[in-house]
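Worked Example 4.2. Consider the chain below.
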Amino acid sequence: MDLFGKKKNVIGVDIGSSAIKVVELKDTKKGYQLVNYGIAPIPSEVIVDGAIMDSFAIVEAIKGLLSEKKIKTKDAAISVSGHSVIIKKITLPAMTEEELEESIQWEAEQYIPFPISDVNMDFHILEMVAGQPQMDVLIVAVKKDMINDYTAVMAEAGLNPVVVDVDSFALENMYCINYDIDPEQTVALVNIGANVININILKGGTSKLTRDVSAGGRQITNEIQKHVGVSFEDAEILKCGGEVSGVDPSSVEEIVKTASNTLVTEVQRSFDFYLSTAQEGRIDKVYLSGGSSMLKGIVEAISERTGISTEVANPFLKIGLKKTFDAENLKKNAALLSVGVGLAIRRPGDK
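Applying the procedure from the previous section yields the following structure tokens:
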């Protein structure tokens, strides 16, 4: 029960390793409506494997976005991913949520490779069948240092971090508000960022496997730099199909194709792992997001390699859009905003 009337809006702030994305949604009688969004690129060494290396650069980027987009909302939802985040599905004796709350520290200790005092932990009961002696529980543990670093930059940028989520669950939120959930269907949500690929496989809207893979679009940029001998910035332009004087675009296409194959292999490995462990092993559909999902040929490459129908997710499929938004620009950037949308629907006190 919410004693204070309507829950306040939050802005979703997705701190990626190549850009910061902000999204603000509001609840209307017809569902969610997009209020505002913005994207600010950040230099390549600012975040390494999810760890913040240069907090000043992030604070300045967030402040710049809030000012440019005239965003007044102060409450924010953020998310984390990478090696400091542990997500495990465990099977425990059936008990109430209150009993689990008391015993989760002991139950989880054996599954977490860090001292339990060094992490913040949460859990979610996935399936509890009446009369069954056991239940499936998802535990999420994040190193306190990492959460402190992320919340500190938010506070410095003038924001109040009220929710800390995990990238792959933010993707799940985005998917569940935009797409019809078929209880029999298994879908894979694959967010291909600059340095990390977040994978979340859902059956009937329930998470069955989550995985963060240390690979991403920046590997392709590095390959272009290495083979063509251009700056990082020029390599990024070439990767996205742009032109750089003195460089033959057809030679770059081959490099992009070869390097993209590495990413496709990582995705396929995660799918193979899921299919080998799931009882009813099949994946019906793949939805891509993240900056690197826009790379030429990546959708076709994943579809071809895995034999699964693949498309780029539309995070605004069922979200109301004001006429004032530049539709073309929003469409061009939609793939970058999936995590931000999933964060923007969170509210303080959510479980």
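The chain has a mean pLDDT of 92. DSSP finds ten helices and 15 strands in the chain. Compare this with Example 4.1 before moving on.
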